[in-house]
Amino acid sequence: MKIGRFFICFLLAFSMISSFAFAKGESEADSKYPEKIIELVCPASVGGSTDLAARSMATSMAKYLKQTIMVVNKPGGGGQLGIDYALKKKADGYTIVSSAIGNWTIYPALHSDAFYDYSNFRNIGRTEITPTVLVTRPSKNYKDLKGLTEYIKKNPKALKYGIAANGSVSELGVKAYMMLSGIPLESAIGIPFEGTGEATMAILGDHIDYMFVNVSPILDHIKSGSLIPLAVSVKQKELPNVPTFEELGLAGAGISSWKGLCVHPDTPEAIVKKLEAALLACTKDPEWIAMQEKLGVVPAFMSGKDFDTYLKNESETFKKIAASMQK
Fold this sequence. Notes:
Helices cover 44% and strands 19% of the residues. By secondary structure, the protein is α/β, with parallel strands linked by helices.
């Protein structure tokens, strides 16, 4: 009888614990996650920066989740094909998505017909950023950002700036700087190019006056003195004396390309927490950090909650720029 009573008490206790777990939103499947291969959707082509970021994260994150992560490339439509594919998948954590600035905040801001934006997903977190810099030629009359700002205001349409690609960080970075500095966008002339390489040759040849680009492709030109850095998006160990936009009072202009991970918005909380913990571990992993250094990017973990705020602010900035461009 005593054994029987003990067994009944045990079952009741177990039932209460299980009920508590379910009440907290954690099912048995959630607690055992992940039990099968995870699909990491990359809404970009193989070989690009978004793809390389996804593959390095898949390799590292698999160690901490103790499960294979398979990258599935779904390019097309400015990333819309891959995003649509991911949103139609089951919200069980077995489909995660590689997010990037181009698809999540730039494209929706510039295209009113976009069916999504960053808010359609649940952010796991940011993984990294690609530092950017505003540069000019040493032969110019201005030697710092304040000097450039004053020159443009006093000499409207006298200067030309380079755009590495229309609708890119290169274009929006310049326009964010101008807008936040109180400079009308029509006060300088934007010249589009087919990539950073072509834009770099133009500024070195004195065909344009300033441009906003990733640091790594032009770092040697800065070190040689061929180009002068006026402001960077984040502090750089290679450029310790160059102020950030934030230090100059223009925090919103410090736009950097970034990468992150997200999931379907209905993904269970317990699974999201496991993914965020694994992501944080990856961004501290020496092997992953070494991979990022080779790619010219900086590990910059940001929790899902903080990333939500970051994306909201960035999206609002880009929408203001888009509205100004249409005037």
